[in-house]
Amino acid sequence: MKKTYETPVAYAEEFMPNEYVAVCWGVACSTNKANRYEASIHNSAQDHRGEYCGTTGHQWLTDVDNDGTPERMSEIGTDGLGTLACTIYTDGTYGQKGNISEVEVGDYIYWTTSAGSGRDRRTWHHQGWVTETTPGHPNRS
Questions:
Q1: Record's superkingdom (predicted)?
Q2: Within a domain: residue 10?
């Protein structure tokens, strides 16, 4: 058997992601304040609990196109209600809708989530601080 000497060769491949990674921020609902608000509008049946909306990972603002501006917000950790879309408001009166694209890390925001339809429709009024999901690494979604 004849042996042939081949020159050693090293190959380098450029990483090409096969999925888009979006920037995410989390928001934990200030449950005590939110429950006080619900009671003030006679809506106390819609309670806010620490293990659900009070957990940062249960509400996410997502920057889908990675331009540093969120395009949507969702509550993903509900008590059996699936994923709920969030509506942002300009202040604690929940009277005027806000612009999700103006929300930044460090903001105190107000939002609602709703579930059901018709007479069975329920709405929760949330509030809380926007935080990075992984401090120092905002694109780890």
A1: Bacteria
A2: no
Residue 91 backbone dihedrals phi, psi, to 5 degrees: -160, -175
Q: Do residues 33 and 45 touch, judged by C-beta distance below 8 A?
A: no
Tokens 């090293």: give the residue: 10
What is the DSSP secondary-structure string of 17-57?
A: -SSPPPEEEEEEE-HHHHHHHHHHTT-TTS---TTTTTSGG
Instruction: Report the domain count for the chain.
Output: 1
| Residue 108 within a domain | yes
Spell out the alpha helix ranges (H) of 2-140: 31-40
Give every CB contact of residue 7 below 8 A, 6+ residues apart in sequence. Answer: none
- For 56-115, what is each residue's pLDDT tens digit? 888 888 888 888 788 889 998 788 888 999 999 999 999 999 999 898 889 999 999 999
In angstroms, the Cα distances linking 141 to 54, 58, 85, 103 are 19, 13, 18, 17
